[in-house]
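Action item from last week, closing it out:
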Amino acid sequence: MAASPVPGYSPGFKKPPATLRLKRKRLRRSEAATAAPLPCGAAPPAASAPARRNPFSSLDNAPRAAGTLQPRERGQRPPPPPAGGSPSAAPFWQLLESVCEDKPTRRAEPSERTSILALTDDLHLPVAVPEVPSSPRHEFPADWSLKTRLLFMSSQPFTWAEHLKAQEEAQGFVQHCRATETNLPERIQEPKLSTELRCAFQQSLVYWLHPSLPWLQLFPRIGADRKIVGKATPWSQDEALQQVLMSDWSVSFTSLYNLLKAKLCPYFYVCTYQFTVLFRAAGLAGSDVITAVISPTTRGLREAMRSEGIEFSLPLVEERRTRKQKNSEGNLETEVANSLKVGNSLEDGEEPAPSDDDDESFSWLEEMGVQDKVKKPDTISIKLRKEKHEVQMDHKPESLALVKGTNTFTLLNFLINCKSLVAVAGPQAGLPPTLLSPVAFRGGTMQTLKARSINAKARVHLAYEDIFSLEVVGPVMPHSLHALTMLLQAAQRGAFSAVLYTHEPTAVFNTDLNAARPALNKETICKDLTGCGLHPKTLDQLSQCPTLGKSSIRFLEMKDYAYTWKS
């Protein structure tokens, strides 16, 4: 229907798509009359193709083919363009239809009353069934892995951990520096009014760090390039500044080792951009000598340590090899198959590392009289298999290296002079490794874990109940985890749960590495390490032999003053 003429009114200006549709209709009719039909899927000539429509215009005004001008219902998909038509004449959304078909649906945002327990389902928990103690225990095992975040939950509020007074905060710092032992009662009636509890809470959040660069997040270092990129790093292009930073770092590192040797520091971590080293004093983790565990390692790092004369072992590799030998004893058919099959794999799919006496290991074939029928691998093949096995182990938990006794001092010198300890390119170029310690050391900076309380609603039996939570963020070391649980035991009336976020490269530190040597008795350990700055109960826990293996505690729960956990 034609509109009545109005001065200053233009129908084409009112609705431009209508004019474009008329032009495209005329163009299609002229093409159909003069040109032969194109094969299926062939594009029309460029000279006759109409101008491409603006894809950002309204979809409702998009040009449609003949017979599709009627309005469509909401949710109804318009019919596809006719075969042989110009692809540019189709609506823009149809061009993306094939891509959008496989697009995953967006996860629904949690509502205001979503249970805080349901929010923890997004954790990367292991697929295997977690190991849970058959019966509750009064103490959970030591967890030597570093935690990036703790989330405590309880039916009792955490108001006692909020808004510490200046005097309480200062008293907590003093108690930490003086290693004051705080013994709380089993149950505190009014936690919010307990100054002793609030000071002890501040004391448990303190740790020591080097280097201290407030504008950079120095933990974790493995995989931290995206968090550091774009930040100011003036040392990356200044070699003189890099030397000053490394010289200062070497002094702090040596200071920590001297404290460890004197049993004034229980343990400390060295976090590089490729691996993490845990130094532990004699008497901890079931060992009677100083130990250092490195994970993950590479073949190049292990070869460099050997060339420097550092004696170390690979406990997980040796344990797996010993277990395999025990399983294969008395089974001659298995030994023949393993010897003849070069590509034989271990339980986890890796090839076995051949021993140095492979030439002598085939002597039993001569006794059977089949030595001429079996092609024995040459020396080069054996060496290649060894190298392949070592490379396959790189960056995996099985590459854990253990250094004991006086070799830890050689390791100290090796790390100070190791050029590959610091990245030469990327956001972490020239940045010394991070040192984390529970006690003060030369060049160390006092830091505190960040804590905040969160309140939520949980749905229980068609009703909503209050769930109180306490979040602790930062490099949580083993002593801090144990100290916090002791405080919560008294403040939350022996009932709380916790979700623990582990820095995965450090989970393997929970492997028992001292099965070959007996540990000192508890009395001697507590007597020698009384000045290390740890609470006696925490020291007793950390002196036990690790039992978690290559895993770590993911979920911890206390009911009626007894612990259960999942790893």
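Closing note: The longest strand covers residues 463-476.
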